[in-house]
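Quick start: what a row looks like.
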Amino acid sequence: MGSEDSFDVVPERIHQGSALISELGSYAWSILADFRSVMADTSWTGDDENGHKIRANFVENRDLTLGTLESLGEALERTGDATLMNLKSTQGTQEGILDAIGEQSGEYGGGGGRRG
C-alpha cells in the first residue's frame, strides 16, 4: 500500500468484491425463478366474484415483485461487470504511470503497461 495521498489498486480485493456481487446476482436470479414457478398458479383464488378480486390483487402484487427481483438481478450483474471493467482500466493506468516513472528515473524494468 502507498501513502495516504496515493491510491493503489488491490486487484485481489476487487476481484473478491466483484465475485460476491456476481454471486448475489445469481441468488437474485435463482430467487426470481423459484418465485415465478411457485407464484404462477392462481387457481386457488377460485372462479367466483370474490376470487376474481383476490386474483387481480394477487397478480398485481406478484408482478410488481417479479419486476423488482428482475431489476435487482440486473443491477447486481451490471455492478459486478462495471467493477471489473473499472479494475482493468485502473490497473492499466496505474501500470502505465509506474512504467513512466521507472523510465524517467532510469529504472525501467518493463513490468507493466507501456513498453518503451
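That is the whole record. The first helix runs from residue 11 to 39. The chain is about 75% helix and 0% strand.
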